[in-house]
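Need residues for this backbone.
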């Protein structure tokens, strides 16, 4: 089983969107039994809160089911539990690495690196642009799944 943890600052916008999109893509490929997908925050600011209404609305508009979710914080134990820890921006990556105590197994990635881009996924909490975030997250999740299918197929 491939275990993926998507991470952003508060776990109510980008990482929750990525969790829902990746879950949808995996089901479309009929691979749900081979994946465990979750999301978390690097901060404690939104712990216990449901996904942002902008994320909920954008996913609904795109006919992608929202995964039931309440914000949680990433822990050091998550590093050992997941195969891929996927951050949305450079600040997330820095905080994830700090929480994990390093990245000795090279499991921490920025989402858009799978699209051959070093860009950050902009935080719609600040930009208000859930469309741009959706496009980036969909592209990143699609590329991540393609990467996994190409490199981890024996685990599936």
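Answer:
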């Amino acid at each position: 089983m491939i275990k993926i943890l998507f991470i952003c600052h508060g776990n109510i916008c980008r990482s929750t969107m990525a969790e829902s999109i990746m879950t949808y893509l995996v089901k479309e490929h009929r691979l749900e039994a081979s994946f465990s997908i979750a999301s978390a925050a690097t901060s404690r600011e939104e712990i216990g809160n449901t996904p942002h209404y902008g994320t909920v609305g954008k996913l609904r508009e795109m006919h992608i089911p929202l995964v039931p979710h309440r914000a949680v914080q990433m822990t050091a134990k998550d590093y050992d539990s997941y195969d891929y820890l996927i951050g949305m921006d450079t600040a997330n990556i820095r905080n994830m690495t700090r929480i994990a105590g390093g990245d000795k197994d090279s499991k921490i990635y920025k989402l858009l690196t799978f699209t051959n881009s070093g860009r950050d996924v902009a935080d719609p909490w600040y930009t208000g642009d859930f469309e741009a975030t959706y496009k980036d997250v969909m592209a990143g999740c699609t590329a991540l799944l393609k990467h996994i299918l190409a490199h981890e197929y024996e685990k599936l």
